[in-house]
Amino acid sequence: MAMDRETGSVLRWPEADREPTRAGDVTAGSGPGTSARSGPGPSSVLDRRLNVAPMMERTDRHCRYFLRLVAPQTLLYTEMVTAAALMHGDRARLLAFDPAEHPVALQLGGSEPDELAAAARYGAAAGYDEINLNVGCPSDRVQAGCFGAALMLEPERVAACVAAMRDAVDVPVTVKTRLGVDHHDSYEFLRDFVGTIAEAGCRTVIVHARKAWLKGLSPKQNREIPPLDYARVHRLKRDFPELDVILNGGLKDEATTLAELGRVDGVMLGRAAYDDPMLLARLDAAIFGHEPVSVNEALERFFEYAEREIGKGTRLRAMTRHLMGVFAGRPGGRAWRRALGEWPRADDDRATLAKLRALAQSLVRDRLSRVF
Fold first, then answer.
1. CA-based diameter of the chain, in Å?
2. At what angle do helices 277-288 and 61-70 cross, to 10 degrees?
3. Which of 63, 137, 161, 202 is labelled catalytic?
4. Active site residue 137
5. Integer-rounded Cα radius of gyration of the chain
6. In angstroms, rounded to a whole number, what is the distance separating the alpha carbons of residues 149 and 180?
């Protein structure tokens, strides 16, 4: 039995027992998220048109469960997990997820082919639908481990890692990268890098449409200061029509995001989806052709999930911290954020959850009364 050292809760492997799935839920091996894709590019078992980026300290299993409720068919990504951590750490805790999260990809960090191959095997055995290699993070900690964006300077090493991972697993192996690093930022540099990993068998590349500065900028600054260049990603797609090319970076509104789907195979949102989950709900509905999930429905089902998790020892604050943006830009948003910041500090998580449920219902009713 594995325990989450942060929350004290019991973690289960994906095949463990769980609450019965509701009609319309996305479950392992079924549902539209695992059907053949229909957009431009190669055939695949995953529909990659809409994705949520891997985000450290954000896309943990509780966050992903909530995002799945608001976006039934979006492809979700874990936080980055280092291959070394899976080799030597608490593997059960690092890989635990709920089957309702499918389709979900595991992002790995590392630079040693054999170690990454072993980590990929662990991820595939745990039930992840894709294994993604991080070649885009510019943080000092990641660089110290000789992986992330710094690996763009070693395309042959990345190709060897991709080949080793592909040999180890049957699920897709993909790469998330940048336009370039430091002064290695020409289109030719990006084209040659992608060509090298494509020769190793990578069929999907996710491109954050900014270059990364390895020194002088923080990770946050690297997400904001280097200019976006969507045209370069469009050109990459034209030069590699056989690949799935996914655009990431700066996508914050529906119009821009939907327009980009006419130029690339998929779009990936990061903090925009985390800070305003209902934006993701609207995009999922528009792209996959269904009615948007309502705030009320998503929250009520997440509260049911939280009840179950509290019963297993998970602290409420570990779950509700991901709900800050639910009422973003809407009446009551400030009161909601204040409640989430203060109430979960109490000792009685069930009582606090009941208060949050009542507040959410009140905010939803108030919003409806303003409409009608």
1. 61
2. 50
3. 137
4. yes
5. 20
6. 8
User: What does the pLDDT look like over 230-251, one tens digit per residue?
Assistant: 999 999 999 999 999 999 999 9
Q: How far apart are CA 247 and CA 68, in angstroms?
A: 21
Return the residue matching tokens 């208060």: 355
CA separation for the pair 142, 145 (Å, rounded): 5
- The domains of the chain, with CATH numbers, are 2-288 (3.20.20.70), 295-371 (1.20.120.1460)
Angle at 324 between CA 12 and CA 68, to 5 degrees: 45
Give the strand pairing for 173-178 and 130-135. parallel
Q: How far apart are CA 187 and CA 194, in angstroms?
A: 11
If one compares 229 and 31, the residue with the highest pLDDT of the two is 229
**For the segment 261-297, what is each residue's pLDDT rounded down to a tens digit?**
999 999 999 999 999 999 999 999 999 999 999 999 9
Q: Shortest CA distance to 277 belongs to which of 72, 96, 57?
A: 72
Q: What are phi and psi of 353, to 5 degrees?
A: -60, -40
Supply the DSSP symbol for 37.
P
The residue whose two tokens read 């593997």 is: 91
Q: Let me know: does 209 contact 248? Beta carbons within 8 Å.
A: yes
Helix ranges, the chain (H) = 61-70, 83-88, 91-95, 113-126, 140-144, 155-168, 187-199, 219-222, 230-239, 254-260, 271-275, 277-288, 295-311, 316-320, 333-342, 349-371
HEC per residue, 219-265: HHHHCCCCCCCHHHHHHHHHHCCCCEEEEECCCCCHHHHHHHCCCCC
**Cα distance from N-terminal residue to C-terminal residue, the chain:** 51
Show Cβ contacts of residue 173 under 8 Å, excluding neighbours closer than 6 positions.
Answer: 120, 130, 131, 132, 133, 162, 165, 166, 201, 202
Q: Give the bridge partners for 3, in sequence order.
A: 10
Report yes or no: 210 and 166 within 8 Å, Cβ to Cβ. Answer: no
